[in-house]
Amino acid sequence: MIFYKILLIFSIGLIASCAAMNLTPATEVAYEGELIGNEDFTYPSAGKVLEMCLTAKTCMGLSQTDYPLPKIRGLRGGNAVECGVNEDGTPKLKEGCYSADGFITVPEGGDLDVISHECVHHWLMQSTGDPDPLHGSKFFLTCSGGISLTEDAE
Amino acid sequence: MWKELFKIAPDLIPIIIQTVMDLEQVVTGIKRGEIRKSRVMNIISNILDTKNYFLKRDSGGQLEILNLVSMFVDVLVSTFNYTGLFKSTESLDFTPIPVNKEES
Question: ipTM of the assembly?
């Protein structure tokens, strides 16, 4: 019986995750700089953002490495950010993006979980030199979400 | 092997799902959503032992089943993350907070 309940939850979750979302570009820079805050300013989500990024790092088995943290750019004025352009020349709107210069760009008000996804790009970039824009790495599924599965020893 | 696995699947799958979900609830309070895979596998292995699934199996056969369970745990966690079942409800706030500096 519990199996069918879980199956139902899965189905609802899948439908909800596939629901179309109207994306509008955020363009005004609310914050730009170090993940944990700059010399003069920090931001309310800094602690959580740092925690999520480090959790993703541990999940990927990189906790013992001293790779630098990514930087972050928070944009205001919409629920998406422009990450390159589509084939037809229109801007590619996404809930977050990572660029090779080490910056994570996200809209203010966006979901905090986007951070762990972008951090996986960052840690892949640091450890392999390739941020894996096509999301081929299994870490995007096992380390960038509500659950981080880690095989590190206790 | 697969035939036997399919036979026990109706019992096994809910156990695995429940274990991962229980651990998620326990671990969330300590550190958000981090699960030690070894912990999940130990619990499942103990449950299977208790339920005597391994009664007529040699260690190789047990290992084979546990490998399949391990793969299933990966798939399960991936599904949880893909569907956003344990998604954070918090949103990003970039309101600038001035850092207090002590005058030198």
Answer: 0.75
